[in-house]
Design goal:
Elements lengths: L1 H5 L2 H17 L8 H22 L4 E3 L4 E3 L1 H18 L11 H20 L3 H19 L5 H32 L4 H7 L5 H19 L7 H8 L2 H7 L2 H15 L9 H20 L5 H21 L7 H25 L12 H4 L1 H15 L5 H15 L3 H26 L11 H19 L1 H7 L8
Antiparallel strand pairs: 1-2
Helix pairs in contact: 2-3, 2-5, 3-4, 3-5, 4-5, 4-12, 4-15, 5-6, 5-12, 6-7, 7-8, 7-9, 7-10, 9-12, 10-11, 10-14, 11-15, 12-14, 12-15, 13-14, 13-19, 14-15, 14-18, 14-19, 15-17, 15-18, 15-20, 15-21, 17-19, 17-20, 18-19, 18-20
Length: 468
């Protein structure tokens, strides 16, 4: 037991910091709530250090095989913890808020649920991780207690509750069909189960994970929540939950569904095509920058699902997925950092003349938006290239062609934002919030660094998921 707990130090640090933060924050005066941010940052740094140590150890399944500590789990830990550090730099508008501690605690709990979601090897743990990753975000969406935030939180909660119940139904059905909830038992039982019943159970579970990822057909909440919630919350919901959901979907396809009679990779290829196309088409007509980034997120999930479709058919599928997730997280958070630095700029035209008044911020925004397109040498370019290669190796040539067309088309709506920002108009731009601006200055070069170091990063991400 002690050895198993030692392998879970990153998760323990997140859980302990959330509990301690809530207790300590209850006694701190409002002007000293910033100490909880420091506690959260220290927990993330400690978690990163333990992740590096775990990376050097062989893959291991703990707690009777219900949770895997392997390359996918360690990569998810690293990306989520770095993302939380970036998000802590975006929370200036909650500083000195009477519920500042609760904001940080909810962020830590959601991050913990996301990490567990990626490492689970058991349907019951998957359901618990789904709830832990979701419920804190419902509260964060309505954190401001204003009309847009309350509406966003309500929509988020209702759809999340519906898909949560759907997941529980799927877990119940698959347990009855296979005789167990762990993935090895599912892998043995699903192929022999009645095809229709197994398909219903699997689709019910997959639907909830698609909701977490923001993919078709459960993507409706993404633009409304991103626009209605505070900008830091928009950054959280469009980044952190996607990481765990994408890895959890990959683990399902590569393990329990690998031997199933139905062609699940083809289903994910179709979902990927629909998600990237819908996200790009909807983004064309957006003038609100947060809604534009929300639809951009949906399209990015479509590209990520290409790696899920290639699971078990290409050795590059898992490394490409993990590389893309790392690149997307830092790039998307960089774009949101600019939005958080200029909270009064809500539309594309509000950014007109940004280069004249905030040249470094304009440069960071341009790098991040071009990075989301997949422009070399940014990390998303390397991620897309490897994901496309994995899908091609898996035989989905038509999907690669469609993804290339969608990538080219996405240039249009990103340029709609970059063009006014790079003009030298005399429009007055508000003073940028320093912490969020600093986060943007860090995220933009980090996005480029991931692309330049894509080769070594891919080498580090090489490996297979562990199914005990």
């Amino acid at each position: 037991m002690t050895q198993e707990l030692g392998l879970l130090l990153p998760e323990i640090f997140l859980a302990a910091s959330a509990v301690l933060g809530l207790l300590i924050g209850s006694y701190l005066p409002r002007r000293r709530q910033w100490l909880i941010h420091v506690l959260a940052a220290l927990a993330c740094l400690a978690g990163l250090a333990s992740t590096v140590l775990d990376w050097l150890e062989p893959s291991t399944a703990v707690f009777e095989g219900s949770y895997s500590v392997d390359i996918a789990t360690n990569a998810t830990r690293a990306v989520v913890l770095v993302s939380v550090l970036f998000v802590l730099g975006l929370t200036a508008d909650v500083r000195s808020h009477k519920r500042e501690t609760e904001f940080v605690v909810l962020l830590l709990l959601s991050a913990l649920g996301t990490v567990i979601l990626a490492g689970t090897n058991d349907l019951l743990l998957l359901g618990a991780a789904y709830l832990l990753a979701s419920v804190p975000l419902y509260a964060l969406a309505a954190f401001a207690k204003d009309s847009p935030g309350t509406e966003a939180g309500l929509k988020f909660y209702l759809l999340g509750a519906l898909l949560g119940v759907t997941m529980l139904f799927g877990i119940m059905l698959l347990t009855g069909l296979s005789g167990g909830t762990d993935y090895p038992t599912l892998a043995d039982g699903i192929p022999d189960a009645p095809t229709a019943a197994a398909a219903v159970g699997v689709i019910a579970v997959i639907a909830s994970l698609l909701f977490k990822a923001g993919a078709v057909p459960a993507q409706f909440w993404v633009p409304d929540v991103t626009q209605g919630a505070r900008p830091p919350v928009g950054a959280i919901v469009t980044t952190i939950p996607k990481i765990g959901a994408a890895v959890a979907l990959y683990r399902l396809v590569a393990a329990p569904l690998g031997l199933a009679s139905l062609d699940w990779p083809l289903l994910f290829a179709v979902l990927a095509a629909a998600t990237m196309t819908l996200g790009n088409l909807a983004a064309f007509f957006q003038s609100d920058v947060r809604r534009l980034l929300a639809y951009s997120t949906i399209s990015q999930i479509g590209y990520l699902l290409m790696a899920v479709a290639a699971a078990g058919r290409s050795t590059l599928a898992l490394p490409s997925l993990l590389l893309y997730l790392a690149a997307y997280a830092v790039t998307n958070l960089g774009a949101f950092a600019v939005v958080c630095a200029l909270p009064g700029a809500r539309t594309l035209t509000d950014y007109s003349g940004l280069r004249r008044h905030q040249p470094w911020l304009a440069l960071g925004l341009t790098i991040c938006l071009l990075g989301l397109v997949g422009t070399p040498p940014t990390g998303v370019f390397a991620g897309k290239l490897t994901v496309f290669t994995a899908a091609f190796d898996a035989g989905f040539v038509w999907l690669v062609v469609l993804a290339a067309v969608n990538t080219a088309a996405s240039v249009f709506y990103y340029l709609r934002w970059i063009a006014p920002a790079m003009r030298s108009n005399p429009t007055t731009i508000e003073h940028a919030e320093p912490r969020a601006a600093t986060t943007a200055y860090l995220a933009a070069p980090a996005s480029v660094a991931v692309g330049i170091l894509a080769g070594p990063i891919l080498a580090v991400f090489q490996g297979n998921i562990l199914i005990s």
